[in-house]
Automatic annotation (TrEMBL):
<keyword id="KW-0677">Repeat</keyword>
<dbReference type="InterPro" id="IPR013164">
    <property type="entry name" value="Cadherin_N"/>
</dbReference>
<dbReference type="InterPro" id="IPR020894">
    <property type="entry name" value="Cadherin_CS"/>
</dbReference>
<dbReference type="InterPro" id="IPR015919">
    <property type="entry name" value="Cadherin-like_sf"/>
</dbReference>
<feature type="domain" description="Cadherin">
    <location>
        <begin position="6"/>
        <end position="106"/>
    </location>
</feature>
<dbReference type="GO" id="GO:0005886">
    <property type="term" value="C:plasma membrane"/>
</dbReference>
<feature type="transmembrane region" description="Helical">
    <location>
        <begin position="665"/>
        <end position="690"/>
    </location>
</feature>
<feature type="domain" description="Cadherin">
    <location>
        <begin position="216"/>
        <end position="323"/>
    </location>
</feature>
<protein>
    <recommendedName>
        <fullName>Protocadherin gamma-C3</fullName>
    </recommendedName>
</protein>
<keyword id="KW-1003">Cell membrane</keyword>
<feature type="domain" description="Cadherin">
    <location>
        <begin position="324"/>
        <end position="428"/>
    </location>
</feature>
<dbReference type="InterPro" id="IPR002126">
    <property type="entry name" value="Cadherin-like_dom"/>
</dbReference>
<keyword id="KW-0106">Calcium</keyword>
<dbReference type="GO" id="GO:0005509">
    <property type="term" value="F:calcium ion binding"/>
</dbReference>
<dbReference type="Pfam" id="PF00028">
    <property type="entry name" value="Cadherin"/>
</dbReference>
<feature type="domain" description="Cadherin">
    <location>
        <begin position="553"/>
        <end position="659"/>
    </location>
</feature>
<keyword id="KW-0732">Signal</keyword>
Amino acid sequence: GQLRYTVPEELEHGAFVANLGEDLGLDVSTLSARRFRIVSRAGARQHLEVNLENGILFVNERIDREEVCEAGGTCLLHLQLLVESPLELYRVEVEVLDINDHAPTFPWQEYVLEVAESAVLGARFPLESAQDPDVGTNSVHTYRLSPNGYFSLEVQTRSDASKFAELVLERALDREQQRAHRVLLTALDGGVPERSGTAHILITVLDANDNVPAFDQPSYGVSLPEDAPAGTLVIQLNATDLDEGPNGEIEYSFSGHAPPRVRELFHIEPQSGQVLLKGPLDYERAHLHELYVQAKDRGPSAVAVHCRVLVHLLDVNDNAPEVTLTSVSTPVLEDAPPGTVIAVISVLDRDSGDNGRVSCEVSPDVPFELRSSFRNYYTLVTTQALDREVVPEYNVSITARDMGSPALLTRSTLTVPVSDVNDNAPRFLQPSYSVYVMENNAPGASICSVSALDPDCQQNAYLSYSIADGHIHGMPVGTYVSINSDSGHMYALRSLDYEQIRSFQIQVQAQDAGFPPLSANVTVHIFVLDQNDNAPVIVSPTPRNGSVATELVPRSARPGYLVGTVSAVDADAGLNSRLSYQLLQATDFTLFSVAPETGELRTLRSFLEQDAPRQQLVVQVRDGGQPALSATVSLLLSVVETMPQTLSDFSEFSLPPEVSSSSPLTLYLLVSLGSVSFTFLLAILILTAIR
């Protein structure tokens, strides 16, 4: 529906106009939240405004009806009221009522009217019209003439209902008796209180002129398109005078009561009587102009005659539609349901008839359509779900086309950005990660980086990384690795040992900052790489304090005789644990050799009489790492004539007297230690029994 109110012009700021909240049935407490407002065209003055606290429509700035509505007549302010959530559109018309704030005024305070003494009784002489910008009863209502013995006053009405006055000769003039007459013309409006304006008229009586000019007809009518250019001939007037010489030469001009607007738009050639177009016409402002033209000769007692020319304007499709876009809900959420209102669009064509009838449409390649709410008002709504990640912004082309011939159109583009909704979970760049870390790494060293992407934007795309709870060999995963929540860089919190843990896996989560947040997980496999950090360990033979690994070798041993095997282990892996054996030192290198792969110690030849009975050997075990690590073992081989029945390879024997001789002192020490220990134990038992 449509509401209509009235308000007098010239009210002060804040003056009450209407209670829109009550009249529209709106909840006043929600007006601010629902963004209740007046929708106006860009650049338009906001004469009225709404108080969102109480829904009152009030005067925002002083309204001058004569300024707002130049053409006169009914002065309407068209308001479009908009309220959101849900969207509702209302039309309100406010009629600005005229007040009598202007008095009638004449163009001149005094002017001269020449009348021939031969003028017949009842002759009429048009007078200068007064102007009053007010309308209706507040405009010029009537004229009065000061009392005199020769003239009376008649008030005439033009086609536009405006008034003008004519002097009517009531008594014959005699120039010899009175050459001039003075009268006071008063224009009065119909307002309350009444206002008025005056002008002094000097009537000069001229000698008689035999003949006066005469127009072909008292009234003329002509049609002119509103887009006619300046200089266009409107009409050729023709008046004739039967006199000769100057008394028969005619001059044309506007009558004194021709309105100022007419003088701005039209021009009369004084000699030819051609009425020419002077200024731009506008059918939408006025479709009829009333011209009052006078003609008089150049004689000494010239008397003017008058005619009326009615100029009817023909509407031309010279105004393209005007499109006003009022954004309502931009940006629009990408999950907005179909039918969501994006904008309110108003179109206006200042032409009339078919020239002012407008249709509006949008380009077909966008998910929007126009729905007509009121005449020349449309709402732009969505037709389907949007996806910001596919199209983040739409440029909607709106075309308004009138029905004129040829048709005029206006295109306007509305940019509709799509607002993001957290509808996409993060996605890691890889389905899983495999990370290889060299053991003995420095605590705190970066070991890898994971990265995820989120096609959403702003906070919905801001990601934070974390490690899911879990255990590695019974210890919390957080004691092994950490992750930078912003960058996804991962760090080792401890030095890893290949010999203790060779691989483990953790779950990394990427979570966005949307509401509610969305997340994704990825598995990170961490493999510890071996480093050559363990030297070989001799397992057999094992030397003890104060002793060396010894072995007995029969003198009768032949070449290739297996003396024993050096065994070692390496905790590393791969090449780092591949061992090789080498004989570093020997009393006689020609007697023994060591197998590089197995560590077997064998004789190279048979023993000779001159060979030493004791052979000292040093065997080195070396791994294959870079750099290589090694261990050595010292062996003492004794060459004997006969072998004991039970001996294992590389059994430990006491050194011979030359190497390690026994001493009575050792025996004494052992006996003393045993006696002391026995005495102490006996004392403990006695004390326990007593207690």
